Amino acid sequence: MSDTSFLSLEQLTLAYDDNIAVRNLDLGIKRGELVALLGPSGCGKTTTMRSIAGLLTPKSGVIRLDGADITRVPANKRAVGLVFQSYALFPHLSVFENVAFGLRLKKVAKHELEKRVENGLKSVGLSKFAARKPAELSGGQQQRVALARSMVMEPKVLLLDEPLSNLDARLRLEMRTELQRVQKESGITMIFVTHDQVEALALADRIVVMRDGLIEQIGTPEDIYNKPASAFVADFVGFENVFALEAGQLKTPHGLINLSGSAPAGIAGLAWRPNTVKLDQGPYQGTVLGTSFAGRTREYLLDTPLGPIKAEVDAGFPGHELGTSLNFNLPVEDAAPLARFA
Amino acid sequence: MTSRLLSTIILTIVMLFLIGPFLIIVAASLSAGDTLAFPPQGLSFKWVLKVFEIESFRASFVMSMMLAILGTLAALVIGIPVSYALARYKVPFGETVRTIVSAPIIVPGIIVGLALLRYLVIPLGFNIGLALFMAHTALVLPYAVRVVSASMVNLRSDIEEAAVLLGCSRLGAFLRVVLPSIRGGILAAFILGFVTSFNQVPVSLFLSGPGVRTLPIDMLAYLETTYDPSVAALSALLAFMSIGIVFLAERFLGFSRYV
């Protein structure tokens, strides 16, 4: 069994009634990997996750887990855990009983069950809350219960649906660390779904960017962040200035415009992050449409013949007033080359 | 200030209309006289005690109890899955189902009773008890569906999915997770159904035969022949029973949240 086929999705097509949500998806995931499915809502990431869990039967294609074809295995026999976005705790059961739920169904002996539940609660720091009802816990605590509830089942794969989206900023950082720790300690294979690139970049070993039911790019966070394969990915990870290339020139709303250097051969587009745009130098001219102070940097929105350009410069530089006309450059060597533009 | 005075007056009148008859019945039942009258003549508990000595009341009380309990249980057995399906799935003609299920509320009970008598009991020789049971089940069903549906609205489907992923079958998830989560609503529906069935007159009117009578029908029959305060005493006792049940339900369940 090759390394990336611990969990493999082969030519997976998923649909709700007749609406295709995911088309011919191929994806291989390593044992112990932490993978993010990243994309805007409606891209098929949640649908893909639900099919791995067995909550949605594929229209066609195969899902293999640890060497076995599980495509038709019912959800309750898959050894796949899922932490729901809303946590989905059982409101009528105590924290202890929530975590024990699956073990009781498995008829785990009382002594071992208590030990496993206690260990599970301990690993998420909730030992003291065993007797509480879910409604008496904060959102972050509820999520940790949901995590423990899935973890005590020792699933082969743990899926997490938008694990951080319901938490406030401070808790989010805490939970992120917590997830990483639990994953490293247990060595469990985790897949989480998110629409937030920051989350994906910070947490995942590997990111799968999805769009309209197809995979746009698979790569490490560094790859995705620095070398987006398409305009869509570039836009999604914060390249605000994205251009298609045509005959070695930038394609803009106002026609083709020369590059300030020569583009590498065989690429479909170029993308610049705001901080790679150089102000007060270069061949292009623009007018300041908007400016905002962001602490260490200052952001500008320029009205230019290339269309709107976003630039971000060190706040130490002298500022430009609204309406000022200035030169700028889009250095080709600082741009991310895009293999695909569409 | 005047509007406040006005609302106090209106409130008092409304309360009087609601509670007045009940107070009159209680007073009449404590009468020492021999006929049903208000104001009562003297004060005595003899009619309250007499209620327990009337043989037919005892029999019809048991009948009414059985009907109310079994009919409501049957209505819940049908109504819970119906509510669940209506809440969870896009049921074809879901609205129509909802309307049909609530039909017994809309159709006057006397017509339901007559229809059952004319088309089931007479031509098919249905047992009267069975017909009464069916009538009461149908009567309570709308309440069961309505109250249980209300408590199911807030129940997210992902807790069932969570249960399934932890090893439950679909049915297991329903029994272990859905039912316990809506047990307050179920109990509320049971109480409402029980009280509705127990106090039901029009449907039962046509479906009472020799030896098979519900308590309200029996009281009506008794009143036709004997005009003494024992009926008032029985009414008061029943009212206290209903009040007691609803009070306990409110106390322990927050009954009013469901109805």
Explained architecture:
- Chain A: One of its GO terms (cellular component) is ATP-binding cassette (ABC) transporter complex.
- Chain A: It is found in: Cell inner membrane.
- The complex is a heterodimer of chains A (342) and B (259).
- Chain A contains eight helices and 19 strands.
- Chain A has 342 residues and is of the alpha+beta class.
- In chain A, strands 6-7-8-3-9-10 form a six-stranded mixed β-sheet, sandwiched between helices. Chain A has a five-stranded antiparallel β-sheet with strand order 13-12-11-14-19.
- In chain A, a hairpin with a 2-residue loop joins strand 16 and strand 17.
- Helix content of chain B is 76%, strand content 0%.
- At the A-B interface, strand 6, helix 2 and helix 4 of A face helix 8 and helix 9 of B.
CATH architecture of the largest domain in chain A: 3-Layer(aba) Sandwich
Distance between the termini of chain A: 35 Å
| Helix/strand order of chain B, N-terminal first | HHHHHHHHHHHHH
Rg over C-alpha atoms of chain A, rounded to the nearest angstrom? 24 Å
Q: Kindly report how far apart the N and C termini of chain B lie.
A: 34 Å
Number of domains of chain B: 1
Biggest beta sheet attributes of chain A: 6 strands, mixed
**Mean of the pLDDT scores of chain B?**
86
Shape of chain B: globular
According to CATH, the homologous superfamily of the largest domain in chain A is P-loop containing nucleotide triphosphate hydrolases
Strand content of chain A is 35-45%
**How much β-strand is present in the residues of chain B?**
under 5%
Topology-level CATH name of chain B: MetI-like fold
What is the count of DSSP helices of chain B, taking H or I runs of 4+ residues?
13
| Low-pLDDT residue spans of chain B | none
> Per CATH, what is the topology of the largest domain in chain A?
Rossmann fold
Question: Low-confidence spans of chain A: pLDDT under 50, at least 5 residues?
Answer: none
CATH class descriptor of chain B: Mainly Alpha
Percent of residues of chain A in helical segments? 10-25%
**Main sheet characteristics of chain B:** none
Instruction: Determine the fraction of residues in helical runs of chain B and give it as a percent range.
Output: over 70%
Membrane topology (chain B): Multi-pass membrane protein
Protein name (chain B): ABC transporter permease
Keywords (chain B): Cell inner membrane, Cell membrane, Membrane, Transmembrane, Transmembrane helix, Transport
GO cellular component, one term (chain B): plasma membrane
